[in-house]
Amino acid sequence: MGTPELISPRSPRVAAARRLARRNFRGKERMFIAEGPQAVREAADHRGSDGRPTLTELFATVEAAERYAPIIDAAQDAGARVHLADSEVLADVSQTVTPQGLIGVCHFLDSPFESILATRPKLVAVLANVRDPGNAGTVLRCADAAGADAVVLTDASVDLYNPKSVRASVGSLFHLPVAVGVPVEQAVQGLRDAGVRILAADGAGEDDLDDELDAGTMGGPTAWVFGNEAWGLPEETRALADAVVRVPIHGKAESLNLATAAAVCLYASARAQRPRRSTG
């Protein structure tokens, strides 16, 4: 890699990256930070809908550059400018207590809601009024793992590009289309018009997830609406759904957290939508 380029924490490039911790600067620049080898690897491989590389810059310690040489190569192949820096620079830009030695600067990558509808999605996660960035990122990761076609964050939800959301997605942010800032009414109506059944997940739901599965009603295109972990879905949002479904509690647990409930619901739909294997 040649002689390390030790950038001062006062460098304009470092200062610009550091400012991306603030939402108003992210929105103004339409750029965000991705930290760690998994996120940076995915960012280096990602292209926007216009074919533009998502990763634009990469800050790496010398140790990390040697350890993750294939990621450095991928970043350079993508046209990203790679800065070798000391740990002081990484600590200055990082939003974590223990930086992993790689920090990427990326273009926004959210998709227009209309383009998601045009794909006729079969499984969608809608985050309505989800304010905790860790929950948002984890639900996105669950949706990716369950094979969902898209995620929609309503206008009352947390910023997709909050560093905690990006970290919690563990790279899944780069795997599936995500629409942001969509009013919940518009999200529900658009999905319904696209032939998608709307299920609201709520611990006090009238319908039981097991009963839905037993009745065979979950095999078609489905969007799950998930609400705020602390107070759930407001009545006006519940009223928009075709059914309000609770995850059954068979043991003595008081409830499930948002991400766990989302994983159960999304996997239930994914299983119901899969063709059954022949036993003959």
Can you tell me about this structure?
The protein has 280 residues and is of the alpha/beta class. It is built from 13 helices and 11 strands. Strands 7-6-5-10-8-11-9 form a 7-stranded parallel β-sheet. A 4-stranded mixed β-sheet has the order 1-4-2-3. The protein is elongated, with a radius of gyration of 21 Å. The N and C termini lie far apart (58 Å). The model has no long low-confidence stretch (mean pLDDT 91).
For the record, give the distance between the C-alpha atoms at the N and C termini, rounded to a whole number: 58 Å
Report the strand count.
Answer: 11
Unreliable spans: none
Structural class: alpha/beta
List keywords for this structure.
13 helices; four-stranded mixed sheet; 280 residues; single chain; seven-stranded parallel sheet; alpha/beta
Short synopsis of the structure:
This protein is of the alpha/beta class.
Topology:
Elements: H1 12-19, H2 23-29, E1 31-35, H3 37-45, E2 55-60, H4 62-67, H5 69-77, E3 81-84, H6 87-93, E4 102-107, H7 113-118, E5 123-127, H8 133-145, E6 150-154, H9 163-169, E7 178-182, H10 184-193, E8 197-201, E9 207-208, H11 209-215, E10 222-226, H12 235-238, E11 243-246, H13 258-273
Parallel strand pairs: 2-3, 5-6, 5-10, 6-7, 8-10, 8-11, 9-11
Antiparallel strand pairs: 1-4, 2-4
Helix pairs in contact: 3-5, 8-9, 8-13
